[in-house]
Design a protein that fits this description.
Helices cover about 35% and strands about 25% of the residues. With about 325 residues, it is α/β, with parallel strands linked by helices.
Length: about 325
C-alpha cells in the first residue's frame, strides 16, 4: 500500500519510474548553458508553423515523439497523457498531442504544470491504472508575451524583475518498467497568496508557494534538507531565489548550499539579457529532462526534490487588480 505522509504527501510502495525523457528548445535556449544537452534545438522559433501557438504545439508533439522513441514504446501503449501549457484553454497541448490519440487530461498549473503532470502520472501508475503514462508541458516566448503581456511587435520595455519565458517542451514517459530514476513520492502543493500584485515580478509571487511545499515535504517525509542532494525549484529566478532562501530560513531550515533554480540554470544572465531568469511551463520541464535527470541516472545525485513553481494569474485577474497567488508541487526523484 502507498503511504499517505503528513497532510500533503505520498510515498509509493511500488515507485514508478521515469523511463525516458525528451527536451525540445528554441534558438535562445540553444545559445545558453544547456545547449548541448537538449535533444532538439530549432533555430526557427516558429518550428515551421505560421503562428507562435502552432509552433508550441509542434514542440509538444516532437517532445512526446522523441520520449516514446527513446523507450521504443508506441503511443497506443500509453494509457493516459497528462499535459498542459500557458495558453487559454490549453490549446498548445490539445492541438499538439491530437495526432497521438492518447486519452488525455489537460492541466493548468502555470509554470508548475510539469510537476502536476508528473505527480498525476506517477500516482496513476502506482495505482495500477496502466503500464505507461506520458507527462508533457510546453511554453513559448512569443505566445506567452501575446497571452499575458504585449505582442512582440510592441517592443515593450521589460523591468529587471521580469522573466524570459522559455521556448521549449519537455516530455516524460512514466511507467512500471525499471530505469535508473524513480519517482519515490510527491508533495502536492496548495495555493499560497501573499497579496503581491506585480505580475512582472513572478519570482516574488511564487517564492512563498515554493517555501510552503519544500517545508511541507520535509515535515511530511520527516527529513532534513541535507537528505536531498539538491532541492530544485522551477523558475523563481534571481529575485525569487533570494526571497525563498529567506523564507525557508525563517522556518528553521538552511538550503543555500542545496538549492538550484531552473530559471537561473537555463540562461546565462550576463550574456543573454534575460533579466530575472527563465520561466514558463517549458523551463522546469526541459531543464529536468536535459540536465537534472542525467545526473540522477548516473548516480551523481541520489535524491532530488524537484519543485516546479507557478504564478496563477490571467489577463482578466491582472486587469481587475487581483493578487497573484502561487503554487508549487514537489516530486521526489531517486537514483536506483
Amino acid at each position: 500500500m502507498d503511504q499517505v505522509r503528513g497532510s500533503q504527501s505520498l510515498i509509493f510502495s511500488q515507485a514508478p519510474y521515469i523511463i525516458s525523457a525528451a527536451s525540445v528548445a528554441g534558438s535562445k535556449e540553444g545559445e545558453g548553458p544547456l545547449a548541448k544537452l537538449f535533444d532538439l534545438v530549432n533555430d526557427d522559433d516558429l518550428f515551421g508553423a505560421q503562428t507562435w501557438e502552432e509552433a508550441e504545439s509542434n514542440m509538444q508533439k516532437e517532445a512526446c515523439t522523441l520520449a516514446l522513441g527513446k523507450a521504443h514504446v508506441t503511443a497506443e501503449k500509453v494509457r493516459y497523457l497528462f499535459g498542459g501549457d500557458l495558453l487559454r484553454q490549453g490549446i498548445a497541448t490539445s492541438m499538439g498531442v491530437e495526432a497521438l490519440q492518447i486519452p488525455m487530461f489537460g492541466l493548468y498549473g502555470a509554470c508548475s504544470t510539469s510537476g502536476e503532470a508528473l505527480a498525476l502520472a506517477a500516482m496513476s501508475t502506482a495505482a495500477g491504472y496502466g503500464e505507461y503514462m506520458l507527462a508533457v508541458t510546453s511554453s513559448h516566448f512569443g505566445s506567452a508575451e501575446k497571452e499575458f503581456r504585449f505582442p512582440l511587435g510592441y517592443a515593450s520595455q521589460r523591468p529587471l524583475s521580469a522573466h524570459w519565458t522559455v521556448t521549449g517542451s519537455g516530455a516524460f514517459l512514466v511507467g512500471t518498467r525499471k530505469s535508473h530514476v524513480r519517482i519515490a513520492g510527491v508533495t502536492v502543493g496548495k495555493i499560497v497568496d501573499y497579496g503581491l500584485k506585480d505580475s512582472q515580478n513572478m519570482g516574488a509571487c511564487m517564492a512563498p508557494a515554493a517555501m510552503d511545499t519544500i517545508v511541507q515535504n520535509l515535515h511530511d517525509m520527516e527529513r532534513e534538507p541535507d537528505e536531498y542532494d539538491r532541492i530544485v525549484t522551477g523558475d523563481l529566478g534571481y529575485v525569487g531565489q533570494s526571497i525563498l532562501l529567506d523564507l525557508v530560513r525563517g522556518k528553521g531550515y538552511d538550503i543555500r548550499k542545496l538549492h538550484l533554480d531552473c530559471g537561473m540554470t537555463i540562461f546565462d544572465q550576463e550574456t543573454q539579457d534575460t533579466h530575472a531568469g527563465g520561466s514558463g511551463c517549458g523551463c522546469a520541464a526541459v531543464t529536468l529532462a536535459s540536465f537534472i535527470l542525467p545526473k540522477i541516472e548516473k548516480g551523481e545525485w541520489k535524491r532530488v526534490l524537484f519543485v516546479p513553481t507557478g504564478a496563477l494569474m490571467s489577463t482578466v485577474s491582472y486587469n481587475e487588480g487581483a493578487s497573484v497567488p502561487g503554487i508549487a508541487h514537489g516530486i521526489v526523484l531517486e537514483h536506483c
